[in-house]
């Protein structure tokens, strides 16, 4: 059983910063608030500082990372009444709750970091290395939030200190380049303050490698390709990360804290749990919710074992046996017809199967006939809302692909680019796709983009990739399709999952609107174009 101390102390940190202390003062009028800690009682010990920074990790992405792919071409928001479904349909606006919730969570995290950095030096400590480490963690966490905000909303307000309500009402939009500059600065400073590794009790904290890996991601998003390649190269040269041997087991309890993970959101059953099993598993598995389900568009992206597209006439692809002879990452990422489910039964999604997972059997069953397999573990079947599986937010495979993509965009298509891509394609015991040998920028660009799509499916990167590649109007318009199966006459039929088509308006959907609640409070906050 896992007993990661850091997971326990995150929970303790939240409690310490939100629960009050009973007053020992006999004076009835000199009471201590019972819903918070007074600053006079806190910031006294190194333990206070650690508890404070622990609490900042709660606003990291978690299962929400899957949500991002649920509103792209890779997955479908399964129930039409889910707020994310309105984003698929293009019918959302500045009042949509999902828009405001993401804004609020990010700025809540930023506010916590600002407060921490303004107060941590009050702690009387001679352990400079510890205090610097905690500052590095806080800076990296703040950069994480701004990276997300600028990717979703663009020119958001850059707030780097605690502010009053009146000051908040005077904030204006900060140019995107200025935010990227800040993120670069924060992560560079954080990397200099953070250790490369921790002991077992502190697994899950930001490390130097995590800060540099996040810097590589940020610079890739920003189109600063040389800096992205340099940061990724620094991670590679640390020599402490590598691909986990098995892609199939990468998202299992046995693989937690493995050599591929740079950053994850840490959980612990019964103490600090998530509901990823209940969120994603097929309906037959204890009435799980199938909230986001894979699409045919994603499934068709996986190559054959020979490294050919299924649209290639020479690939040998058989539409009647669509999952045979395919890149193993497909069966490791997606529940396919005939797969064994955690309960021991067989996944049978065809509309004619008369099972709980049959398309149309209930509004909760997958409407595409596919379900997400990543993070679905038999250990969670007994209590689907009490999962303790860690959610991976940054791993070494992404760093390799970031390095390759940045070098490709720079026109530096040398042997290191092929080596990075091919390590992802065949560097594991259970994924052995043929090495690529292309040398032109156009061919390599297509290859690395496909690798990001299939390697990182359901890990929250696709939405940002679509936006920075400017391919939304190509991949996010039109019907959502699912499985292909033979009907009673033997004719192959492809399921159309949604009653209405996806809609992506290139004139405005590359950025979310600034939340209306924020603009009501602050008229100085300018709205994004065409919203």
Automatic annotation (TrEMBL):
Say which family it is in: Belongs to the SusD family.
Subcellular location, record wording: Cell outer membrane
- Boundaries of every RagB/SusD domain copy: 260-531
Q: Does the keyword Membrane apply?
A: yes
User: Keywords assigned by UniProt?
Assistant: Cell outer membrane, Membrane, Signal
The organism's place on the tree of life at top rank: Bacteria
Signal peptide positions on this chain: none
InterPro entries linked to this entry:
SusD-like_N, SusD_RagB_dom, TPR-like_helical_dom_sf
Q: What is this protein called?
A: Putative outer membrane starch-binding protein
What GO terms fall under cellular component here? cell outer membrane
Principal localisation: membrane
Which segments constitute the SusD-like N-terminal domain? 72-218
């Amino acid at each position: 059983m896992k007993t990661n101390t850091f997971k326990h102390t995150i929970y303790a940190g939240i409690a310490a910063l939100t629960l009050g202390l009973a007053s020992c003062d006999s004076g009835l009028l000199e009471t201590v608030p019972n819903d918070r800690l007074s600053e006079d009682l806190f910031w006294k010990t190194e333990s206070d500082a650690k508890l404070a920074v622990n609490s900042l990790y709660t606003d990291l992405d978690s299962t929400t990372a899957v949500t991002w792919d649920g509103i792209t071409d890779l997955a479908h928001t399964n129930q039409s009444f889910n707020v994310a479904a309105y984003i698929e349909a293009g019918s959302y606006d500045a009042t949509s709750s999902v828009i405001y919730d993401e804004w609020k969570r990010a700025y809540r995290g930023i506010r916590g970091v600002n407060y921490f950095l303004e107060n941590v030096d009050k702690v009387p400590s001679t352990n400079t290395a510890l205090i610097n480490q905690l500052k590095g963690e806080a800076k990296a966490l703040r950069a994480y939030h701004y990276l997300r905000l600028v990717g979703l909303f663009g020119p958001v307000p850059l707030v780097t200190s605690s502010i009053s309500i009146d000051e908040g009402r005077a904030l204006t939009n900060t140019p995107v380049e200025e935010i990227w500059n800040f993120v670069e600065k924060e992560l560079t400073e954080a990397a200099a303050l953070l250790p490369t590794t921790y002991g077992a009790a502190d697994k899950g904290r930001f490390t130097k490698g995590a800060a540099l890996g996040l810097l590589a991601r940020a610079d890739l998003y920003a189109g600063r390709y040389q800096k992205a390649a340099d940061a990724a190269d620094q991670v590679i040269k640390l020599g402490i990360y590598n691909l986990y041997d098995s892609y199939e087991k990468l998202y299992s309890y046995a693989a937690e804290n493995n050599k591929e993970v740079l950053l994850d959101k840490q959980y612990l059953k019964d103490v600090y749990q998530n509901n990823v099993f209940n969120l994603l598993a097929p309906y037959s598995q204890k009435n799980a919710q199938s909230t986001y389900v894979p699409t045919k568009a994603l499934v068709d992206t996986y190559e054959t074992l020979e490294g050919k597209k299924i649209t290639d006439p020479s690939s040998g692809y058989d539409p009647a046996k669509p999952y045979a002879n395919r890149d193993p990452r497909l069966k490791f990422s997606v529940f396919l017809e005939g797969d064994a489910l955690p309960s021991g039964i067989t996944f049978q999604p065809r509309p004619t199967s008369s099972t709980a997972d049959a398309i149309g059997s209930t509004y909760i069953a997958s409407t595409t006939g596919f379900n997400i397999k990543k993070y679905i573990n038999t250990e969670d079947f007994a209590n689907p809302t009490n999962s303790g599986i860690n959610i991976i937010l940054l791993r070494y495979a992404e760093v390799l692909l970031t390095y390759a993509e940045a070098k490709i965009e720079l026109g530096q298509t040398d042997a290191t680019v092929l080596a990075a891509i091919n390590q992802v394609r065949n560097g594991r015991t259970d994924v052995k796709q043929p090495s690529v040998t292309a040398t032109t920028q156009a061919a390599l660009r297509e290859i690395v983009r496909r690798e990001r799509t299939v390697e990182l499916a359901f890990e929250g990167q696709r939405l940002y990739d679509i936006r920075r590649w400017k391919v939304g109007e190509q991949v996010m318009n039109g019907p959502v399709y699912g499985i292909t199966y033979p009907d009673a006459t033997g004719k192959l039929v492809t399921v159309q999952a949604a009653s209405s088509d996806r809609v992506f308006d290139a004139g405005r959907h590359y950025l979310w609107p600034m939340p209306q609640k924020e603009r009501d409070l602050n008229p100085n906050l300018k709205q994004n174009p065409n919203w």
